[in-house]
Specification:
five-stranded antiparallel β-sheet, 2 helices, four-stranded antiparallel β-sheet, alpha+beta, Immunoglobulin-like, 116 residues
């Protein structure tokens, strides 16, 4: 599983019995060992990486075996099998977005119906 918290990406992988787990992807040149995951107990491993906005492909490597994350933001065929996808949104866009107040949204909807 992968979650995005602003520009921090939290990778969580369940692999009980593993002795070493890493996350590798195009964000680190697919280098095993650059992003070691920490055993957080109950078979779960976690890594927190600060990534710039963009779309990244990645996989987990546990004791030399590669695994895709089927709970990530998508999958696509890579050179050596399925790669998982994580999207880190542009934080500036999120910060400038303000939802339309409910009463204005209702008025706009009513106006759109009248215009039809």
């Amino acid at each position: 599983m992968v979650t995005v918290e602003q520009n921090w990406v939290v990778f969580t992988f369940y692999r009980p019995g593993a002795s070493r787990v890493c996350v590798a992807g195009d964000f680190n040149g697919w280098a095993i060992g650059d992003a070691e995951m920490i055993d957080v107990g109950n078979g779960n491993w976690e890594a927190r990486l600060r990534l710039s906005p963009g779309e990244f492909r990645f996989r987990y490597c546990a004791d030399g075996e590669w695994f895709a994350d089927y709970a990530a933001g998508g999958l696509e065929m890579g050179r050596f099998g399925m790669d998982s996808i994580v999207v880190v949104p542009d934080r500036q866009l999120q910060e400038t977005y303000e939802p339309i107040p409910e009463e204005i949204g209702a008025a706009l909807s009513a106006e759109a119906v009248l215009a039809v």
